[in-house]
Each structure stands twice: as structure tokens, then as C-alpha cells.
């Protein structure tokens, strides 16, 4: 019956349908409330070390019950007290009767609430960064493999000068590399709220230690170190500054913009049949059209990326309306926006890794598209070859102009192929360069330094960025569809 009841209420698709187990756990109630208990243990240990009357037995009792949370009791306590932290203080005290008098000693709710949020943010970044590194690695391999494969470039989604498939992938990679640096900076800039008291003045702890400022500072330092942080914020209100959330979520929203652009490009190229995302052997593209191979993974990324970008508005507005030392209108909003941002980024990166591990390129289709457009692009090269052969530039320009317009009319008005090259070959005027036409129209002569740019970019900017994550590169993504 309980399992059936699950289908009688809303479940977030971010968790029920998409997110990885590790990210779902990172923002779970179990992670949250066991972290609260660990923070109470850190506080008790540090207070004991600094001379408060706390016994080894009390600390051992707390440590023995750090994981065995009675969630039903905590829920009942919260219904009575209308206060989540005090509900869990009472629940913890129930199984730690000896330690009950010293649990949460001198602390305010934000001691566990805010510090736990900072731990979850830090651990969330630690889950995302290797995933982003793997996406960059897969896409780098793709860029190197196709570094010199010519393809039509597009500006305004109109055919433009040639580039290469690998060079285009480097445009994606450059944005992802910026995201990698942003996420790493967001993670490294995080500090601990530490032990600051109700309005951030540490007054309660100064009283506990009978006016000993050094002990209060040492308490803050010890707890910060036990929680795995190098630094704590030197000043806080009741909460850490909500601009911290802005910085964290802005890096994720920016990643969302990057992924949306990459996956939109893939969708456009799929329409051209030049590149496709992986497609399972028995996958169905359409219930009505059996021939279809829809870019559903890329579409999922775009769909979720929009949500990730939209979430950025929440921390900006929250930070802007935190009155004086704090107001509680941040709480409900942050319960949603912080986890959802990390869960959404996690799903996007897992999906994009799956895409980049299996991108399919169709060189013959790409070549056909080039042949269709290249004669128009090569007109200046043909003119130059004629001038070198002794022709007059103005006469040649006029000949090419007329022939180009005739060929364009065949393409646009008759739906035919571009026959400009055939027209040039049939015109006696161009007889002096007929033997050079294949060389003049070789696509590789139109790609400039694209292959060299790929090689330098990968070696100088991408590979060094991936070095810290080498040990985590082999993880494959089993994508749940």
C-alpha cells in the first residue's frame, strides 16, 4: 500500500526520473540531518577541548547515534514545535539522554542549517566537476578526431566559409572550459559559516567562555576544520551572505546556457543529417513516423537547461531582500532553488556525456553539402587563378557573376543542384585553368588554420584543465530513458 501511495502525490522528476543517486543523496533528508548531528558532535568536541564541562561519555553517546535518526519522531516533534531544528534536537536528545543537556550548546538554528547547506554546496560541486571534466574529455577526443574534416560554416544559419567539424567542437569546448573554471572557483571560494551565534556576534559563545575571545575564535577555527573547510566567513549575520548562493548558482546557470547552445547546434546538425546523437538499436523516434531519429537527448538537455537558467532569478532576489541580519523569507525558496540547480546541472552533464560519447558523423552528407555551396565560395579563387593565367580581373568577374546567377536560379527556382562548376568547365573563356579546378575547389584549401587551432587549443587550454580529474575519466554513463 505504501508503494502505491507514492503515486498519489507529486514527485519531482528531477529525482524520480533523471538525477544520479549521488546527487539525489547529497540533498536528501538523511544527508541533511546526519550532517546536523555531525555538526553538533563537532561543536561538543571543540567546546570540550576548550574547557567546557562536557564528558567523553557524552561525546561517545552522540557519535554512537549520529546515523540512527527516527524520522517519524522528528516529524511528530516538528508538528508540535513548528521548528525543524528543535524537533531534531529533541529527537537526538531522546536517544542520547546523557548528552541531552549539551546538544546545540550556545548555537542558533543556522549553525546546523547554514553550515549544512555549505557542505551540500561544496559536495555538490565535487560531484559535478568530474562529470564536466568527462564531457570535456569526450568532446576533446571528438574534436581531435575530426580536426581536419571540412564542413560548411554557418553565420545567421546561412552557409558561410568552411570550418572543420573539430574546430566547431572547439567552440563548444571553449565555453565548457570557462564553465569548468567557474565551477572550480565557486567551489574553492566557499567558506564555512562556522560558530557565529544568533546575529553573528558570537555573544553566546563569549558568555560560555566567560569573555575569553581567543577561545571563541579557536572554537570557530576547530569546528571549521572538522567540517573540512579551510576558512570560515569572518563576518555573518544570522546567516551567511546569500550572495554566496548567487555566486554558486550563477556558475550553474552559465553552464546551462553553454549546454543549451551545444545541444541546439547538435539538433540543427541532426536536421541536416550531418551529425546525430547516439541512437539505440530498438529506440523508437516517433510513434507515428517509424523512420524518424529524433535528437531526444539533446532536446532533454535544452529543456532542463532552460530550467537551470531560470532558477538564477531566485538567489538574486533572495540576496536582495535579506533585511539587516536576516529574514526567514529565504528559507522556503532556498529549499527548492539550491537542490534543483545542482540536480538539474547533474542531469544535464550525465546526458551530455552520453551524447558526446556516441556522436555519429556522416562525412558523405557533409561533403555533399559542401559541393552544393563551394562553387559559389570558390569564385574569388577562380578569378585569381584566371588572373595568374593572364586574364583580366574585371572581365573574369563579370563572367563569373553571370554564370553564378544562372546557377543560383537553377538551385532556387528549379530545385536543381548547383551546376556552376559545369558552366565554368563548358565556357571556353576558362580553358586556361580547367586543369587547376580540382585543386581550386579542394575543400581543405578553404579551412584556413582550423586543424592547427584545434591542436593548439587542446594542448594548451583543455588537457591541462583535465589533469586533476584523470583518475575519474573512465566512468561511463548508463542513461535512463
Task: Say how many strands there are.
Answer: 4
Count of discrete alpha- or pi-helical segments spanning 4 or more residues: 21
* Largest sheet strand order: 1-2
Structural class call reads mainly alpha
The poorly predicted ranges are none
Query: What helical percentage do the residues reach?
Result: 55-70%
Strand content range? under 5%
Question: Which of globular, elongated, flat, extended, rod-shaped describes the shape?
Answer: elongated
**Ends distance:** 27 Å
Largest sheet, in brief, is: 2 strands, antiparallel
Order of helices and strands: HHHHHHHHEEHHHHEHHHEHHHHHH
Radius of gyration: 31 Å
Overall mean confidence score, pLDDT: 92
Task: Give the arrangement of secondary structure elements.
Blueprint: H1 2-5, H2 13-18, H3 21-26, H4 29-49, H5 56-64, H6 71-81, H7 84-95, H8 109-145, E1 150-155, E2 158-164, H9 165-189, H10 203-208, H11 213-226, H12 243-271, E3 275-276, H13 296-310, H14 313-320, H15 331-357, E4 360-361, H16 363-377, H17 379-388, H18 393-414, H19 420-426, H20 437-440, H21 450-466
Antiparallel strand pairs: 1-2, 3-4
Helix pairs in contact: 4-5, 4-8, 4-11, 6-7, 8-9, 8-15, 8-21, 9-12, 9-21, 12-13, 12-15, 13-15, 17-18
